[in-house]
Amino acid sequence: MKKILATVIMTLFTLPTFADHSDNGKCLDEIKHWNSLSDAEKNEADAKAKRDEGTSHWVAGEKPECEADYKQAIILATD
Known about the structure:
The chain has five helices and no strands. By secondary structure, it is an all-alpha fold. It is globular, with a radius of gyration of 11 Å.
């Protein structure tokens, strides 16, 4: 499971970094938005924890939960 999670995280970080805010319920737009944040924003501890929860939902195929967690991570990172 840890190998899968690590692979998914690496894949998510290599997606194109343009922000697409289409809110399609598939979490990809939030992942792209996260990837477009600055390194300082991405290093916020609470935001990273919420992002990790979202990634776990992605791995489990729970796209709406992934999207909700990534949205919250973005809010935490940018506030």
